[in-house]
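== Fold encoding ==
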Amino acid sequence: MCVMFLSLTAVDLRKLRIPGVLQRLSLCYLLVAAMETVFATADDRGKEKPWAWCRDVIYLLPEWLLSLSMLAVYLALTFALPVPGCPTGYIGPGGLHEGKTHVRCTGGAAGYIDRLVLGDSHIYGNPTPKAIYQTEAPYDPEGILGTLSAAFLCFLGLQAGRVFMTYQDHRGRLVRLVFWALVTGAIGAALCNCSKNDGIIPLNKNLWSVSFSLVTACFGYFLLAFLYVIVDILQLWGGEPFIFAGMNPLILYLCHDIFYRFFPVNFHVDPVHWKLLLKALWDVIIWLSLAFVLYCKKIFIAL
């Protein structure tokens, strides 16, 4: 029996982190939902037109223009905004990177904007590269600038939804999903030179780089097409148990974020790969069990 006591301490508002995962999700949803609310139409008025094969794009053309504009702003600020004491266009980790020549340039323009607007005390103080590059400047992976490229990825998800609304036959849906997978994948691969750290715009989740958004969208489109075949066309699988988690992702995220330090979710294991893997599987089982109970009780909490 494990007895757990939770101690609640006052939050120091002078050091409160303002950005975060849920905050970024809400901003991305706000931007994309606002565009969809203003420009969306449910009429398939171009079904018999010569451009019917690409009408999923035509229907979203104003939203495409706005989304690409957001992406253009992101790129312009990332690579053209002058950052005091740093090379223009720098997107490295700072610290020890390149012989300590850019010590406080972590994240380049993205980090500079966050520190300028929010202040050092209100963004993440232990960025991922700190362990390797001994960075000195705080950097927030869910900061202001990266929200623009993240919103573009969110819009690409909306494009997938438009495919299902526009094309009613299996073939039309699959063709469009694979088309978008190939387009986003090809552009993303070209930007990062099909590599992990190279290319014009390397893959970088902390910066939410354009290549990262496009490659992530590519895999998302391919996976959605595969699941559509397995679940909807061939009807070989109903989506369980993942459908349970998919109905309540917000509550599962919050529970994990709150209780991941405590038993029975967390407990000490030796830092051996197979033991850590089993512990991770145990975590998944716990939260899937909670999702299953909520599903059976028809309790669904969403944004």
